[in-house]
Amino acid sequence: MIDLVQPLLNGERRALARMLTALENERPGYETALAALYPHTGRAWIVGITGAPGTGKSSLVSALAKAYRARGQTVAILAVDPTSPFTGGAILGDRIRMRDLAGDAGVFIRSMATRGSLGGLARATRDAIRVMDAAGFDRVLVETVGAGQSEIDIVRAAYTTIVIEAPGLGDDVQAIKAGILEIADVLAVNKADLSGADNTVRGLRAMLELGHPASRTELLQHHGQLMSVEPSANGHNAPLWMPPIVRTVATNGQGVDELLDAIEQHREHVLSAGLVELERAHIEIEIYERLRETLLLRFLQALPGDTLADMLRRVQAREIDPRGAVSELMGLVGNQAIG
Amino acid sequence: MSKQAVRVLIAKPGLDGHDRGAKVIARALRDAGMEVIYTGLRQTPEMIAEAALQEDVDVVGLSILSGAHMALVPRVRELMDANGLRDVALLVGGIIPDDDIVTLKAMGVSGVFGPGTSTEDIVKHIRALQSGQGA
After folding, report:
1. Is the domain defined by A41-274 classed in CATH 3.40.50.300?
2. How does pLDDT run across A76-89, given as a tens digit for each residue?
């Protein structure tokens, strides 16, 4: 795998494609190659695109990529689709909507199956983004699986998250539920040519004005616009960002430039307000996750024989409760697991 | 646990708009545990070869009902080879006369599947290719 590193850094597309497969399949040596690529990351701006199935994510990603190309920037797209939990297979159909990008050497599209991971991304997505970043693309657009209300892993991977809504998908109580709307840095109301788009925009705006931390002062100033406010009381010096709502029609390009402007404004905002902190938060989460995984694996390896199966049986037989089982297991292995 | 998944690109080159067959195949391969990248209608050979490269697939399957296979298939093979995808198998499905099948196979098409083929045969063919190349 390490032999892919130099060609990949030189921009060879085949090397990039093969590296992506290697990390997805966890082929021997992929970790060393990733480690060698890591110093070359941190240059691309990572944009996440999420939203319910059928809101037009793929079409909008395609339109955004075209608009970025018109501005002279190179774009890598990572499109995630779900793996069947029954067969392990997947149909990855996002390229259907991305025909317009064919033949452009400044665009690289890769489809990725979730392979059992929940949360809207695949396990390998984070590493795949890094590899695309190291390959020198200016923007990496990550399209999540069609997301409902809690597939929000994307915020831990992207710097700017776009949530796409479309008319007719739910009442305004949907909009104030916790979850996916809270992660938006930019809201796009796609299919804005359909009737009901005004209602969708109004519902989203009401939700933002009700619930968004930036809204309290913002309401006194300008409506729904990017704004700076006084440093808040919790010690944060960064001005707050009010997610703009952009109307788009992905199929004819309407509003796409405005959406791109909104992304770039958010980028400027993050760069001035503290990308360092955002990135540190991402890294912290990733380290915790990887630690948790590694420790669990070691712990299970340290458990003698069929201790675990035996414990499961005892819990099911009501001889011990699940919490008691865990503390007994911890007592059995204790510190050796970490050692 | 196995992390390998066979990746297959299913594409419809040329101008005919009948993609039911391609969708049936895509679904059958999915049900056989493969990852199927479905590109949709009216793909040029250039688009197909480029998608095969970006997606790093093991197999490319073309569905052609228009009769233009003798123009389209060799071009796809040629572009794939030029992209360094000599090892990627090429399968063709559709209405292909017997004489053409022989010619296509000589050009580096690993399998041709006409009307009435069971999807199981295609799955078996791909599995056999994989175990041949495997390890």
Report:
1. yes
2. 999 998 888 888 89
Are A62 and A97 spatial neighbours (Cβ–Cβ below 8 Å)?
Answer: yes
Predicted complex: ipTM over 0.85:
yes
Rounded (10°) angle between helices A256-273 and A275-302: 80
Find all residues with CB under 8 Å of A38, minimum gap 6, and list them: A130, A134
Domain residue ranges of chain A, discontinuous segments joined by +: 1-39, 41-274, 289-337
Instruction: Say whether residue A123 is in contact with chain B using an 8 A CB cutoff.
Output: no
Check CB contact of B36 with chain A, cutoff 8 Å. Answer: yes
Residue numbers in B near A89 (CB within 8 A): 5, 29-36
Contact A109, A79 (CB under 8 A): yes
Which position has the token pair 């665009």?
A: A107
Give tens-digit pLDDT for A120-145: 888 899 999 999 999 999 999 999 98
* Interchain contact B33–A (C-beta under 8 A): yes
CATH 3.40.50.150 fits B7-129, yes or no: no
How far is CA B15 from its chain centroid? Answer: 17
Helix (H/G/I), strand (E/B), else coil: A248: coil
Taking contacts as CB-CB distances below 8 angstroms, the residues of chain A near B40 are: 93, 95-96, 99
Cβ atoms of A173 and A303 within 8 Å: the answer is no
